[in-house]
Design brief:
The chain has 136 residues and is α+β, with helices and mostly antiparallel strands. 26% of the residues lie in helices and 27% in strands. The model has no long low-confidence stretch (mean pLDDT 95).
Amino acid sequence: MPGGAAVVTRVVDGDTVHVSVGGRDETVRYIGIDTPESVKPGTPVQCFAKAASAANERLVAGERVRLSLDAEPRDRYGRLLAYVYRARDGTFVNAELVREGYARTLTIPPNVRYATRFAGLARRAREGQRGLWRAC
């Protein structure tokens, strides 16, 4: 099962990237968070979507990352579901996007390891009117 060290080869949007891991290309969807839609077919670009995508780009484009899986490793679309950490400094990317107000929480059991942490970060972002909480 893929996991561990990877390199981000493309940022798709605010919560999805393409990576090279173990000699394979994988699409990775961040666990526990949801950013506004910017590339979903049939869905108009949502408020703050471009900012969320740009934030994800700044965090991980071309970076080495560590992927940590939870109970369910793939979604129904075959995407790898992961908690993503930037290798050079350990930044927890999923959490950082919520903390800065680029993402809301999205808890889908059984992948709930950081649900409480993400909920607290989202509450503080909302109370502080950061990111989408101010703009949308």
